[in-house]
Amino acid sequence: MTHYRRPRLSGDVLALLTGLILVLSYAPFGLYWLAPPLLALQVWLWQGLSPQRAAVRAGLFGVALYSYGIWWVTISLYVHGNAPLVFAVLATALLAMYLALYPALTAWLLNRFWPQPGVIRWLLAFPILWLSLDWVRSWLFSGFPWLALGYAQTDSVLAGLAPLGGVLLTGWAVLLSAGLLLLSWRGPYRPLWPVVLVGLWLGSSQLAKIEWTEPAGDPLPIAMIQGNIEQGQKWQDGNLERILLRYSSLSIEAAADSRVIIWPETAIPLFIEYLDPEFLMALETHAEENRVDYLIGVPSGNLDTGVYYNAMLAVGTSDGLYRKQHLLPFGEYLPLRVLFDLFHRFVTIPMADFTPGAADQPLLQAGGYPVGVSICFEAAFGQLIRRTLPEAAYLVNVSNDGWFGDTIAPAQHLQIARLRAIENRRWLARATNTGITALVNPQGQIVEQIPQFQAAILRGELIPMQGTTPYSRVGDAPVLLVLLLLGGLAGVAAHRSSRIKR
């Protein structure tokens, strides 16, 4: 029979604090080195508790982490969605509590089946449980993988693992590091574990030096237009002409020394089908005369049929339309409408009933190369982005982070997109309405960036690339297979341990 110690309130307070501080490992703070010791401390706080009590403590950690990490959802709903403040705060709190269920379940399973401290618990069971549930979080109810552990390591040497196994493998390295710290402190063979920990980080740094891909052509001059249209003004009647004039004038200025010009998500706040044909003809003429290709964020569809898309339009040498595949729940469509129809009674979000685009859409062409286009929230799904490889010579992500205001969300969003560049070893051009607009190299480093909340042009050169990384070819499958195999070993170990006790 297992005897549990009585939990202390101080442990609960410490769990809350570790959750709050863990947010500092992500952008815009960038203290990535905090993640392993904070996770090690969190697992230690679960030690000796009953499964139910450990779940409560882990849940407190999760509530703190996600409440602070995604507090900007309140801004989106209250300021720009016109929801009552109480409703916006309540909706954000409910989302944070839902996300906190994942660490809570991790703690319950860990203390139920692997309660004894040591190698099996800290180096095998804990990373497997956390990572497996994080993977479930990335797709369940359409998925919300925000603040996955791997994203915090975009600027650390552990990002060298991303071309091999994406954000999952990178996050696994963080969890292993936490387990190794615990073993170095309280485990058997203590002199061994610091060596393994250093080897993990040094090995990752060497992997980061592998090129994986190679240039497919000469540098391509591009320009990204940051229109800085206030979210409250964007969809109001009478503002369309002013918005088109701003983007057009900035584009004319950029066309002289650019081959590709990119406008952000829904830069044109009107269905392309209803836009004045003369404007499109003028744009096509300008593209042809200046030998420049446009990629423009614009909705597409028909109000009469109620079927419309969040899309990206290519204008120039090769016209085309990409329709967003992975929509943002509650922002672009309402999941489980029977249960959540109340949401739309409080929140007024323009174009909030988009239809997802097909998974087999042909890639858009710009600057003479196929492009891996993603729109806003799609940047959080590595499996979706990698499907554009190996054809895509570079990546483009467009967004309207004006929904988040002056919060930590745009920096978090850019950090997520940067990991997609690392995973696939492709240049990434990220154009946004209010910022952060940036040009990112295949190592995930920001080469060019312009200030937020300014109407501006980002000019730069990217290099079209060819070839694939292991992650581009096979995605998450190998990591999930290894998780399954190691999970089986951990299960056998737990079974034998329980038999010995009996």
Description:
It is built from 16 helices and 14 strands. With 502 residues, the protein is of the alpha/beta class. The protein folds into 2 domains: 9-211 and 476-501, no CATH class; 214-468, Nitrilase/N-carbamoyl-D-aminoacid amidohydrolase (4-Layer Sandwich), CATH 3.60.110.10. The N and C termini lie close together (8 Å). Strand 7 and strand 8 form a beta hairpin.
Distance between the termini: 8 Å
Q: Round the mean pLDDT to the nearest integer and report it.
A: 92
Tell me the number of strands: 14
The largest sheet has its strands arranged as 6-5-4-3-2-13
CATH level 1 name of the largest domain: Alpha Beta
- The named CATH superfamily of the largest domain: Carbon-nitrogen hydrolase
Could you give a short account of the major beta sheet?
A: 6 strands, mixed
CATH arch. level architecture of the largest domain:
4-Layer Sandwich
Taken in chain order, the helices and strands follow as HHHHHHHHEEHHEHEEEHEEHEHEEEEEHH
Tertiary shape:
globular
Level of helix content?
40-55%
Number of domain units: 2
